[in-house]
Amino acid sequence: MKKETESKSVAEKKEPVQDKGVGAKIKEKEPIRKKEQKENKEQQKAPKAKKTKAVEKNKKPKLNKEEKKQYKIENINGAFVKKIKNKYYEQELKKLQIELVKLQEWVKNNGLKIVVIFEGRDAAGKGGVIKRITESLNPRICRVEALGTPTEKEKSQWYFQRYVPRLPSAGEIVLFDRSWYNRAGVEKVMGFCTDEEYREFLRSCPEFERMLVRSGIILIKYWFSVSDEEQERRFQARLNDRTKRWKLSPMDLESRRKWIEYSRAKDEMFAHTDIKQAPWYVVNADIKKHARLNCISHFLKQIPYDDLTPEHIDLPPREDSSAYVRPPITDQSFVDEAYGGKIEEQH
């Protein structure tokens, strides 16, 4: 019994020592754990911060209240752009077309002679701009010239000869949908002219244009620039639209394959023909509606004009029609009314 009592007392004495040792170890580990936890938190925060910066970099920009009525934000080829809304586009186009009518009256009354050249990549939107310019103007004052392939007789003439009769008389505006610059572009790239003919064109073209300007012609030149990706989209759209498929010629398809050669030819052409008397103006045409408004707006700024729009006219009263007897309707040939027509009374 005595031995058991002694062993218990020894055990009781040892237990507090053991507890003290474990507590000391726990206290020693606490600062280490806190340090590890802190490092782990910092490591977790680091990638999140980078992700936030990346998101901010590609964050969609915001428009103010007025801009929201006019534009929408779209991501085109990896970049955010302001794309005009249809309603605002129609409003601005109408304003510009009213100004074009004012310019037309000024040209007519002052006997001005204006030549506008539209050049650029295939499917760049040249025809769309020309259409918006002419649709509100008098075709006797503003006309479009789009010459086809030269005949054998024309090939034997001085290169600029077939363009001269198309130049404007006093009070006229002529819009060239492609022009004498075919020689610097398609003819050069596709091998339709010799190197000697090409070099002669680069020498004589600036002098020819200076002659036109000295004769009193206002010469304005536009180059419509479109990206490779956007041209591809427009070509595909033409292939899928039966009303536009005619716009794709074998020459257009070949131009896709020779994109770089066309780029070099354009650079060479600009280097020789971007002259002070008739500089080139480049139109960014990746968004057609923007290109139309920007080009027309710029064109109007090139020619000072006053508003000579005819004043309001009161229509005179009609004559008394009682003395006129119409011939029978059955004596006339009418177009069949496949659409619309008179509603028959139902009994």
Structure description:
- The structure is a single chain.
- With 347 residues, this protein is an alpha/beta fold.
- The protein folds into 2 domains: 46-83, no CATH class; 85-301, Rossmann fold.
- Helices cover 50% and strands 13% of the residues.
- The protein is built from 11 helices and 7 strands.
- A 5-stranded parallel beta sheet has the order 4-5-3-6-7, with helices on both faces. Strands 1-2 form a two-stranded antiparallel ribbon.
- Helix 4 (126-134) packs across helix 11 (288-301).
- The longest helix has 56 residues, at 2-57.
- The chain is globular and about 90 Å long.
- The N and C termini lie far apart (131 Å).
- The relative contact order is 0.11.
Q: Shape from CA axes?
A: globular
Please state the second-level CATH architecture of the largest domain: 3-Layer(aba) Sandwich
Number-wise, the strands total 7
> For the record, what CATH class of the largest domain applies?
Alpha Beta
